[in-house]
## 1
Amino acid sequence: MFIALLGVLLLPLPVDPGILVERRLAEELPASVGDTVIARVLGGTAERAFVVAGIFERAPDPNRIARNDYEVRFHLPDLEQMLPDHDRVDRFAIELRSGADPEATARWVESLAFGTQVYESVTLADRSSTTFRVVSRFHDAIGLVTLLASGIFLLCLMVIRVDGRRPDVRTMRLIGVSRRTIVSAVVAEAVLIAAVASVLGVAMGAVLTFGVNTYFGAYYDTTLRFAILSPRIVVVAASLGVALGLIAGGLAAVRIVRVPPQRLGER
Amino acid sequence: MSRAGRLPDALERGRAASNLADPVEVVIRASGVQKVYGRSSSEEGGVAALRGVDVVVASCEWTAIVGPSGCGKSTLLNVLAGIDAPTAGTVELLGNDLGRLDERARARLRLLRVGFVFQRFHLLPVLTAAENIELPMAEAGVARRDRRQRSRELLDFVGLGGRTDHRPPQLSGGEQQRVAIARAVANQPDVVFADEPTGELDSRTSAQILELFSSLNAHGTTLLTVTHDPEIARRARRVIEMSDGRIVSDGRPAR
Amino acid sequence: MIVRASLRGLLHHRGRTLLALAGIGVSSALLVDMTMLASGLTHSFAALTRAQGYPVRVTPAGTLPFDSEAGISEAAAVSQQLREVPGVRSVAPVLGAQLYLVRSDSASEPLFTSGIDPAAQMLYLLVEGEEPGDDEIVVSGPLAEALGISVGDTVSLAVELDVALGRPRGSASYRISGVGDFLFNYAGERSVALPLARLQEITGRSDEVSLFAVAPAADADEEALVERISAAAPELSAYSTRDLTAALDQRLAYFRQLSTILGSISFGVATLLVATIVTIGVRERFGEIATLRAIGVAGHRVQIGIVVEGLALSAGGALLGLPIGLWMARRLDQILLTFPGIPARVSFFVFDGISVALAITLMVGIGALVGVIPGAQALRAPLGSALREEAD
Ligand SMILES: Nc1ncnc2c1ncn2[C@@H]1O[C@H](COP(=O)(O)OP(=O)(O)OP(=O)(O)O)[C@@H](O)[C@H]1O
Ligand SMILES: [Mg+2]
């Protein structure tokens, strides 16, 4: 059980019930194990002293990254005593015997206790990750745009490079080098550029990932990781890069070999 | 080239006022000119293209520079025109010691008083023939209407009156060279340098170009042409022969 | 003439110019979007908070609006106290509660319910009907649509679901007096509003509200008013719109910073693209530049031509990027607005002319100037050799 806590004071008082305090709050107060703190419910008047029995690290939960409230834990009866409604809880967690069907149990509990809603933990997890699905769709969209921009960039670069070598291409064609050879040379160059750039990109990505994690980790005081550079991502990025190289090189090459060699001298 | 050979009025007036009045005025005075490419000294691997050249060119002269390939003709022309700086020696062009001028002043001098015709034309491919000729005038601050008119006159002069709006790639080599000559004289220069102006042209076209030069010279333009063409050498009043970075003979050609 | 040559050069290399424009366009579209995202939500949230003329919020000490279940007790007295603060034009109390829609067919559905003062409320705009009287409620559009109900119909609402008895408790019938456009609802949210006194009575939270929204007099300064309220009611927290957006900003720091990162990247990519193209263009025209120099064109005039080329490319790309950026912003906004609990009225992307103009100008400026460096190189090269190279 936890509740948003406000106005915690440090006072030397006789031994009282125990309370667990989150590490960040303990640092903020500061308070350490054995200290006594006074808790009051928001809007209420009843105050009570507690002894800090322990300090805990809040489990990293992406859902609570933005609402970064502090957290303390009471024994349920202690908390109930301070709240206006006694004998009232927000929710129960139910542990099933192995082999029990969670879905059937959920429906059974709902029918038994009118007004309750029972969810499987996977459903809850799914619901609470909506935010992150939205974020990742957003990132996908941005990624697509970036891909488009870099594709155009590479194509532009290749067209310019190939244009600059029109006289060379002309000479090669005139002495009988085949279109195929020229196309393969151009495509090979584009793929090489794309591949080298992908490697550079992965390296930059690694640096950025480190930076983002360090920065946001400190900003939100959490061990959560905000960016992950997985092998899959590296492979996808590299293959996309090479594919872009193939396309850009191919287009630029076809553009040049379509021109008859005698006209390649013109600018 | 029926209409060629007559200079536009604008050019004639300018000429009459300046050079013709004083035919012995010195246009170029070079002494002890050396040019080493690469290293600073010829001993250590540099290429000594000029090894001490002295030359004086008077106004209205037509001088041809001849000599075997690689003897330093182009280098000399570039140095005399202020395009390249000599490694040693001094060059005085139209009364200006080039070594004492900064690049900006040298550019100004080239723009207003010097014309240059390159072996390979060096026209701007994206501009039309008329625009190529207008370019130096525009840079010199000639009003749009005037320069338009003058570029038409110059194109007529070089026999390309009907090709004003064609771009260099649409013109033949000879035509491009004629546009380049028109561009060189656009700002009524006192002296025109030409580096093998007929080097890439057939003999008939060369003859036309030669006519143009004759006409320019007849109207008072000092001409300095590097050439392999014996015809040009014959027409020039003076022939300088070079070999291995030095002048080996200087005088009137034997007719 | 120099400028004409530059522009004509771009026209001449049509293929690469179009590609460059497209590349710069897409990058600057991204730049525009990231600029819009950087402060978009803050701006639109501020606009929403001010929409009904109630920019100030007063809540239980230390809490943000509807952030906790805590309430303000002795609401009538506090309300009176607030009204007496100089510069206050109107005070709108809001009590948030959960009621249940009682339906004969199935289990009851929870509805977010607000108790409001029909004479002074800032939660919704009436689309149809009128403000609620006793035994009357205003429903949100999506609720009316889902239930197929309209003004004049009645619905039954319960205060609680009694687990022990297995049925709703404290249910009563209410007539629908109006359909409202609830400003702070997320897309499709079903909610109702009814007179404050009635909600206090049925929920047993007598004389309690969740927050007050305060409208300042026409000439009152918002920040100064917040200070006076804080002084008059120290047991409460008062927030100006600026405070609220600052709190929101803190929560959405991730987006702001992400947009900064992505904005800088797209900025870099766009400038790199212009730089590459202009640099290569200049390199290619080494000989042409040498020719210009040889015929006496001054160095700074040559540079003008190069700058014009960069300017044309980056400005053209930016011009192209603006509509693409606005279109992309709309699509990205649609994605982000599916965030749970985000008011449908806000927008993550808000076009802020000044900052967009600043970003674009910076990019175009850099794009125009990057060519100067290779240009200077071309101008420094020995003229004679440069001319020779061109001839090859
Ligand atoms: N930039 C340079 N670097 C090194 N050597 C150079 C350079 N330019 C010219 N040279 C050398 O200087 C010498 C003179 O060259 P230049 O071009 O003046 O000869 P030229 O008489 O004009 O020959 P041609 O008749 O073939 O045009 C040659 O040996 C040439 O190789
Ligand atoms: Mg030569």
## 2
Amino acid sequence: MTFLGLLERHPSHGYDLKRDYDVFFGRGKPLPFGQVYSTLSRLARDGKVVISEVEPGAGPDRKRYVITDLGATEVEQWLTQPVEPEPNLQSVLFSKVVLSLMLDRSAEDYLDLQRRAHLERMRELTAVKRAGGLVDLLLADHSLYHLEADLRWIEMTAARLDALKKAVRP
Amino acid sequence: MDRDDRSTARRPEKGGAAVTVALEARDVEYSFGSTPALRGASVAVEAGEILAIMGPSGSGKSTLLHCLAGILVPSAGQIHLGETRLDTMTETQRSVLRRQRFGFVFQFGQLVPELTAAENVALPLLLNGVRRAPAMREADGWFERLDLGGLQSRRSGELSGGQAQRVALARALVAKPEMLFADEPTGALDSLTGEHVMDLLVDAARGQGTTVILVTHEARVAAYADREAIVRDGRVTVLDRIPS
Ligand SMILES: Nc1ncnc2c1ncn2[C@@H]1O[C@H](COP(=O)(O)OP(=O)(O)OP(=O)(O)O)[C@@H](O)[C@H]1O
Ligand SMILES: [Mg+2]
């Protein structure tokens, strides 16, 4: 999904995609080229990208990938859905924020939506906790504290969107 | 819910059932000197509902709560309590209203230090003209309900933060108010004590049908509410349901 999102900005060569991926989403672990091209050919096979031109001297790096309507629709849907609230989401939340900014969408709207989804889940867990026994309570607490941590991250990120936007769209 | 039908206090809900709006702020503005704190804030709470007001520090949550509760008078906009306009009342009318129909809990209990815990709880009843013996009896009942048995004769300086906050909660609810206004009621408490206070607050409010407006920046506290409103830069965002 990250690749599709990156391609939604503009058509790119595999090499440029890898570079942008490593900068924003790699977290110190560069993506192997093999994985870049296998992902791209899977997307091509599924009709979400097409290869626009093969330049003379065609090695893998000569191909430019262009997102299709199908691919763009998928990106659109992904960015306008909150992630199912559950512990350990940070990388998905982060990707949605960064891609929203890259595609000049409202990351704020996305964060609002995600906040809402988190609070909704926390309400359900609080109800479980108030109705259930000690085991339910302790398990619900564990999830509640993790979701609360996500929410704090959502608040901090919302407060830093302007700075992040500058970093993402120089 | 149709948020634009503002002509009456009752309005149709999606399913067709009528929802009674207990209290509503419409386009409320308020400034402290030249500092605008509210810039067109609108929010409504339904009767019996628990609404959490969240938002960053300095966004205007407390100011909104104070306008809704008739403590501050907005410079523009309206406050509707059922069929009555709160913002056009005199100070005397508002203070009678607050005493008879509202209850308050703040971050620091704000008990009267010269009075015992039991007298603090009985205070709203005494101010509303209930005689001392029945008022003290009624207050006494709250000590058992809020796990405060035996603390009736302590003064506020002799109570822990959590105990003082439960005494403040009893005082806020003893006169069976229509509305309870709580501003960071667990702000000064540790997680476990805060949770205990919230459990009691929610049970007591639901038990007597009190509508609650709860200001908090803690998501775990807001999760006790039915719904949340977010205040940002003096305006309110009430997000609708998640698109599915
Ligand atoms: N008594 C006062 N005099 C002057 N300015 C005030 C006063 N009370 C609040 N303000 C200002 O009004 C704005 C809104 O304040 P308010 O207390 O409503 O915020 P809040 O959302 O409750 O914040 P917090 O989460 O920190 O309690 C802030 O800019 C604040 O500095
Ligand atoms: Mg405040």
